[in-house]
Amino acid sequence: MTGMEIAKRDKRVLIVSHGHPTFSLGGGEVASYNLFNGIHDLPGWESFYLARVGPPVNRHKDSALMSLRQKEREILYYANDYDHFRCSNRNLAGLQQDFVRYVVDLQPDVINFHHYIGLGVETIFALKQALPRVPIVITFHEYLSICHHHGQMVKTSRNTLCYRSSPAECTNCFPHIPESQFFKREAFLKTFFEMADFYISPSEFLIDRYVDWGLPREKFRMIENGLTVEEIVPPRPLPKGGRRNRFGFFGQVSEFKGLHVLVEAVSRVSDKDWGDDSALMIFGGNLEKQPEAFQKKFNELTEKAGNRVRFYGSYRSAELPSLMKDVDWLIIPSIWWENSPVVIQEAFLHGRPIIASNIGGMAEKVTHNVDGIHFRNASVEDLIDRLTDVLRTPDLWDRLRARIKRPIDRQECARRHTEIFNALLAGASGQGTPLPANAAPATAGQGTQVLDRAVAQPL
Fold first, then answer.
1. Per residue in 26-37, pLDDT tens?
2. pTM score, two decimals?
3. b/e per residue, 311-323, with b = 16+ CB within 10 A?
4. Where in the chain is the domain with CATH 3.40.50.2000?
5. Which of 230, 221, 227 is nearest to 416 (CA)?
6. What class is the 3-226+409-456 domain?
7. Cβ(415)–Cβ(42) under 8 Å?
């Protein structure tokens, strides 16, 4: 499509996600969907959303493409033949038949991948081959391509932090996988990432990790995820003599989220400091999907904590404001690095200070003694001390709340993205300098040779 033809209509952005918030409420899904809606709010732009689905959703008989409640700008793509080790799609024929056909018919001006889980990194090559002049942007939400341990960058032994990956380090975590296989995995993934024209990350910490891994820093830009703002909840009304002593956890219930650290710390705060009216309110799902050992440990800890802990189960995004109204503090006790948890922005939007682990994206987004409190990662004892400080310092909540900065909304997030998209389009058409100047896409011929070798020599 020529520059003149683009100018005759709104520019089209295709957002590709590994899941749709209707079926999966992870941070990446919510962030990509907010961006999709934010771009469509901007004059001169229209956006489309392609999200992968799999079991328990059933595939259509004749096509992997499905509509979602007849929403014309949203489509689901069924994919369930996936190699988790290589982040690879085994069904390359089906990829061409439905996925590529839909995108070619759509004729987007920019494609923004928000993940490749379930879809496979081959989707990047397939679209670059089919639409070689269309800029492709990858938004990274975590470290899955760097770390085979669920992208957590923690050691498989005792879940201690991993500071830098390498084939040798990865083999220490997975002794049954030879070092050579991790070397091939890394080369395989980088081959496809290098075909993208630009990268976006919601945190500087994640950029540093991917640069250490070998991706060029000049192709990165940090843009915080944008929120859909519908209602802002005022502070919880306090009874006479009441304290800011209601603590909330929102998110997935898993060992990596550090809930075992949080529940144990809460159970061990002194009776004098905790009192009769303090409470930890846990809103989170998927406990039943966790390893049995963690489920057993979590249930034992909550039983020991007694009425100090209230477990409410899963929630929907639309419910969060009504749930936040009973919470004073948000706690993020993750034992892995995190990147840019959406719940941080949601807490700040509603004026709730945060108590968070002092690592990764949490330490970057929450400033100690400014808009929240840090505690030493995975340390029950340090979290006990911080909770005790909070309960003993009546004016701390007000001081921290007063310094919270309102996070960006989806429109501002979309505007920052379209600045990059415009620059890439200008560079592709020869009308200006793209961001960055050296982000030249791989040619279709080069990509074909690489993909053929990768398929012919499986790991």
1. 778 889 999 999
2. 0.87
3. beeebeeeebeeb
4. 3-226+409-456, 246-402
5. 221
6. alpha beta
7. yes
